[in-house]
Amino acid sequence: DKLHSVPGALDLHELSLPVARTVVRSALEDVGRRFEERRFVNGMWISTKGEFTIITGRGNRSAGGEAVLRPAILALFEDEYASLECAPDPQNPGMLVVDASPLLRGSSS
Q1: Beta strand pairing call for 44-45 and 85-89
Q2: How far is CA 33 from CA 20, 38, 53, in A?
Q3: Residue 70 to residues 50, 56, 63, 95: CA-CA distances in angstroms?
Q4: Which of 1, 56, 81, 82 has an alpha carbon within 20 to 30 A of 72's alpha carbon?
Q5: How many angstroms separate the CA atoms of 81 and 28, rounded?
Q6: Which residues on adjacent β-strands are paired with residue 51?
Q7: Given a cut of 70, is residue 3 above it in pLDDT?
Q8: Closest CA to 86 of 5, 12, 3
Q9: What is the CB-side half-sphere exposure of residue 92 using CA atoms within 13 A?
Q10: 44-86, pLDDT tens digit by residue?
């Protein structure tokens, strides 16, 4: 499954931008609904602190070598999920780290 080619991460880097946005929205809905039941939601490992990783890639295969997904997914979080923190992984610019703890029902974070 391309969405979960890296264990525990939501891998978007092979997807078009519209599909990637839809996948992120769906994943965030699932985190809020299913976290109480298990920490592994639709192939994503959600840490006990409510963090998970999104792989956007670096843009190496995009026209002009410019990243398309990373800035668009960061903008999606700013526009639609402002209560959640989403930031580039300091060790891998092709990945984003999401703090979804505000979505977790019944969590102690």
Answers
A1: unpaired
A2: 20, 10, 18
A3: 20, 5, 14, 8
A4: 1
A5: 9
A6: 99
A7: no
A8: 12
A9: 9
A10: 666 666 788 999 988 776 777 778 899 999 999 999 999 999 9
